[in-house]
Amino acid sequence: MTIHSLLILSRSGLLVFCKDFVKHPRLKPNDWIRVTGIFHGMSEVIKQLSPLPTKNDGISSVEDETFRLHCYQTLTGLKFIVTATPTTENLERLLKDVYGLYCDFVMKDPFHKMEQPIKSHKFIEQLDTLVQRTSDIFMFPLLPFWQDSPYHTYFLVLGKY
Amino acid sequence: MMNAELVTSDVSSQPQSYSTTSGVEYPSTSAPSLGMGSGGTAPPFVGNTFSQSSAIGSTSNKKQSIFDDDLNAHMNKSVSLSAFSHLFCGLLQYCREGIKDVGTLENRLSGIGYQIGIKQLELITHRLRPMKRETNHVSMLEFITKDCWKHIFGRLADGLEQSMQNDNEFFIVDHKPVTNRFVSLPPDMVTFNPASFIAGIIHGMLESAGFKCNVIALDQESDNESKRPKRTLFIVQFKNLHK
């Protein structure tokens, strides 16, 4: 139910944005560059191997017992990657929202250069609130008043979002 | 007798010849509206009495482009925020070429706004109140914060304040200027304010109305004690003010 980290790859497979929401015990930023490089390469190979000529999105998700990785590739070739705990759902929706934020706060920022690391602090702020909101929705069924409160209480909580 | 006949014949023939020549030689040249309000919130100005004048001399029913439209035809339409933001982003990148100094960049940006301000004031006074000219600096500032703000940004400015120390210093308050919305400043340019573009527009309007002044845009951080949100001030300092 937790989102671990969010990565953005540019068209050529460069890691332009990396943010860890949960601190990883072993991975360091340099390791992320290596991991995403391998991921990009594999994704390109899988595109070639795909038996269907129409569907060429590369890897869209990787699932494991301990984590789940989701990748959303835009029509322009950008890759938005999120890793989360395996029970997390709606990750594609989250990635599309992040893409919306990217279009607003990175593409319209005159100080951003293409294929360069993203430094727009407004983008990072908005991303934090988005992820916070999403994890709140995921956390909702685990809240302590889930069992013994009247129904309207958690309808109110739902209404917030 | 001769004079009188001449005069009457002139008067009777004048409107026809005038309308035909104006149709041939001067196709209505108009610029598209510069309304930059966010999409969907059109400024509620109605009753553009001049919009019919482009029909004179147009004989064919062929569809014309927006550049052939009348000056007031796009009065109630607004430009989408995305289109404006991308254009402003390009403008800022163009202004930054070869410039390291924040002050020079702000001056350049406000110089572009100055040219827009002069033209916008002409356009707005033509559209809204063609018969009136403001001669008092306070009523001119009110005209800018209400009518011009509504015309350009689709909403009113958030306030107009006078300085306690200086009689000829005024503050125009805006909580969310449209130019600062998507711009994140890098750490070496924290003092730069993209709203100096709007400051330039205000400057152009005031100077072309006959008020000599200086206009500076300034970001004010949020104040927790008085619960004031983060806002942008446009500081207007009048010169040679006569009372």
Description:
The complex is a heterodimer of chains A (161) and B (243). Chain A has 161 residues and is α+β, with helices and mostly antiparallel strands. Chain A has a single domain (3-121), classed as Beta-Lactamase (2-Layer Sandwich). Helix content of chain A is 40%, strand content 17%. Chain A has helices at residues 29-49, 91-105, 121-139, 151-159; strands spanning 3-9, 15-20, 61-63, 68-73, 79-84. Chain B has a domain at 81-238: 2-Layer Sandwich (Muramoyl-pentapeptide Carboxypeptidase, domain 2), CATH 3.30.1380.20. In chain B, 40% of the residues lie in helices and 11% in strands. Chain B is built from 5 helices and 4 strands. Chain B has helices spanning 2-25, 81-95, 102-128, 137-153, 196-208, and strands spanning 159-162, 169-174, 213-220, 231-238. Chain B has a 4-stranded antiparallel sheet with strand order 1-2-4-3, with helices on one face. In chain B, 28% of the residues are buried. The chains are: A alpha+beta (161), B alpha+beta (243). Chains A and B meet through helix 3 of A and helix 2 of B.
